[in-house]
Input
Amino acid sequence: MGTETRPERADVGRVEEALENELVALRRELHRHPELAGNEARTAALVAERLRGAGLTVTTGVGGHGVVATVEGSEPGRTIAFRADVDAVPTDERPGLDFASEALGAAHLCGHDLHTAVGVGLGVVLARAAARGELAGRVVLIFQPAEEALAGARAMLDDGVLSVAGGAGIDEIHAYHCGPLPVGAVAVGPGYGFPGIDWFRVELTGDDAAARAAAVVAAVRRLGTVGFPDSDEAFERLAEELSVPDGPHATFVLTDADVDDRPGTAVVRGWFRAWPDSRYAELRAELGAVARDADARLTFDGEPFPGMVNAVEPSVAFGDHVRGAFGDAAVEVLHAAYPFNGEDFALFLHALPGAMHILGVANPAEGLNGVPHHPGFGADERAIAFGVEAMAGFLVARASG
Output
């Protein structure tokens, strides 16, 4: 009797040209028709259709327009999840793309269309792997709405997504976020991730309310330790600084505020992003002192939304997997949180071990900066196939765990 040869892990998620073309076409379809948080019906229907076409069991309407698909292995193992967010940013897109947004006031400037295409690609290649007997355990694909509103993760969790996704519970969860790394690379951030956010309101009355409000805004801005880069060179410096252990952004405060003033009254509205979360208590105390000095009323919009903190072991494991499959140059390690984005994936990571990884989508030679939420955000679509191939073998390995 002959010996059966099993494919290497790197082959499990192989994306052939035909599938890559399908995923790029899906990304462009989503990009043309972006949907804002809470309104992702068309996107959800497209995702569900593609996943059912791959032979997967699909549940829709989870936490709004959330979609959950399960890939069942042929042997017992662990249950590992991958989450993709599906909503768009409430802004207009710069003209130029031949597949530019056709929706007024909505655009995929955060890369969620790429995340979604990667998730669908994972469904296709993992279904094939399961059919070949290469998957033990279970992989759950979670397509989450309303990330931009920081509402979708909570809605899905409250709607029982962890039970919908396989019944026995999920052992670990992973995700991607697009970033300004070169296509063909990822970054991992063990113990780091994205900051949370704390919103506040300062109300002032009196004939000099506007002047006092301006002083409050100035004081708030002085609390910040980092500002948004204003050039490609500044972004490059930031990327280098995030890779330095105990570097300048190991802790930080990013903040802004503005004033709505009318005769005899003024309202300052603002926010803090800080790392780590423990800094919010200190910032609230400092802002309280500013408000008292200005004879103003300070209120906060509930508790701060938590930061997203990657668990160390799953983050390191993903980096090790990608190095083994694609070489050392394909992985960068971050030693600080990226200051300019928040993520409600934080709530999944409060419930489960796991990590979010940065998927490089930049190609400067083609004018594609890969910077999420930048007005000129552009992404190299080769990142979709790379993202599928890098993640698929890892999910199979973790599920067989």
